[in-house]
Design a protein that fits this description.
402 residues, alpha/beta, 15 strands, 14% strand
Length: 402
């Protein structure tokens, strides 16, 4: 079953030889093991075991023991937060933040985020109202917020997507004019800054996630940062069942406390964060150098006045210029054991629990809808060798040429 013979040309001349196929790079070898988007930063086991011995000696496993207190102080200093409260995970922290600032009715938020962002509103009986995002930062677009404000609007829930800060000044101006609360989901933004100001100092409350996938983690955990000491006291009550003392429960709270085991791990992981940041910055430069050859592959670059959180390395694929869609590139890289992630596809507004909302219709969210079909997170953690980064880029070259 070979190819059909060339039909002789009219006039009897022999047909010219077929054009050779375009030059293709040699097919790279796949990785022996899957290369994931991230890998938990794990401290030397000896240091963690030493802290566990202290926990065992104390017999105190929860309820704000010595490890919890030490980590809360250390993170307040590292993140330069006026007041910080630790949680068992970031989602519970965000649920409590909504309770603490008394959100109700409707809250304007982004469709381009992890599911937890709109879910915390639903868990507080608040209706999420989805606003479109900016094409550059992929964050909530301040120009899209104001037209959605109604008499039922009580707040704005912004997300510093991939650690790139929202336009906090513009959002704050809108919030002050309409008397709205502002909460920021900074799950990706550990250590980010704007003009030297820490990310946790903006808005009424900022949530950090310390899940194992994050640059800094406690296996599972999170925190809320606030500027108001009274709000900090309310948050601490809400995360502990509303218990003020042995005989007084003053509000309906929840159990959001971080355990001593998680806090002990966090204290050891925190020692490694600066070195991890340095390594990730180097990897980001390697990626940028290698991917510059692809006109249809654009990189997310933080503004000049922003300190990057270095949580993710994100590219956007313009299929009209690369000839390869994001989904096809994603699939082709899997053939090389390279596991990329389509964060965030589908949009939260397309979930079955939200897509009935008027604000969730794709026609109202053209920028977010387009971006969700273009973004791809590449493997990005300090455990990647330079050679591994080059092999990933070789696979991208081959997949695009392919």
């Amino acid at each position: 079953g070979g190819p059909a013979p060339e039909r002789p040309r009219a006039g009897g001349g022999a047909a010219p030889p077929p054009r050779p196929p375009p030059a293709m790079p040699d097919r790279p070898l796949p990785f022996d093991q899957p290369v994931f988007v991230t890998r938990p930063l794990l401290p030397p086991l000896e240091g963690f075991v030493g802290r566990l011995r202290d926990v065992w000696s104390s017999g105190w496993l929860a309820n704000g023991g010595a490890q919890h207190q030490a980590l809360e102080r250390a993170l307040s200093e590292h993140l330069r937060c006026a007041h910080l409260s630790l949680f068992n995970n970031g989602t519970i922290g965000l649920i409590v933040a909504c309770q603490a600032v008394r959100l109700s009715g409707e809250v304007i938020t982004t469709p381009f985020s992890f599911p937890a962002t709109p879910h915390v509103l639903s868990w507080n009986n608040v209706t999420p109202v989805f606003a479109d995002v900016e094409p550059g930062t992929m964050n909530l677009d301040p120009a899209a917020i104001e037209p959605l404000i109604t008499a039922r609007t009580t707040g704005i829930l912004g997300v510093h997507v991939y650690g790139t800060p929202c336009q906090v000044d513009a959002i704050d101006e809108i919030a002050r004019f309409y008397g709205l609360k502002v909460i920021y989901d900074a799950a990706h933004a550990f250590g980010a800054e704007i003009d030297g100001r820490p990310i946790g100092s903006f808005g009424d409350a900022t949530m950090f996630s310390f899940h194992a996938t994050k640059l800094f983690h406690t296996a599972e955990g999170g925190a809320l940062a606030v500027n108001d000491p009274d709000l900090k006291r309310r948050i601490d009550l809400l995360k502990n069942f509303g218990i003020r003392d042995e005989e007084h429960v003053v509000m309906p709270g929840i159990n959001g406390k971080m355990s001593e085991l998680s806090a002990a791990l966090g204290l050891e992981v925190l020692k490694l964060v600066d070195a991890e940041r340095t390594r990730r910055a180097h990897i980001a430069r390697l990626y940028a150098q290698r991917l510059a050859a692809h006109a249809g592959v654009s990189l997310l670059r933080p503004p000049a006045n922003v300190r990057d959180s270095l949580q993710y390395f994100v590219v956007r694929i313009d299929a009209s210029r690369t000839g390869v869609s994001r989904d096809l590139l994603h699939a082709r890289l899997r053939e090389f054991n390279i596991v990329t992630r389509k964060y965030f596809y589908p949009l939260c507004s397309r979930y079955s629990c939200y897509r009935h909302l008027p604000s969730a219709q794709p026609a109202n969210l053209p920028v977010a809808t387009r971006i969700a079909s273009e973004v791809l997170c590449l493997p990005f953690h300090g455990g990647l060798s330079d050679d591994a980064v080059h092999r990933i880029c070789d696979a991208i070259d081959h997949a695009i040429a392919g």
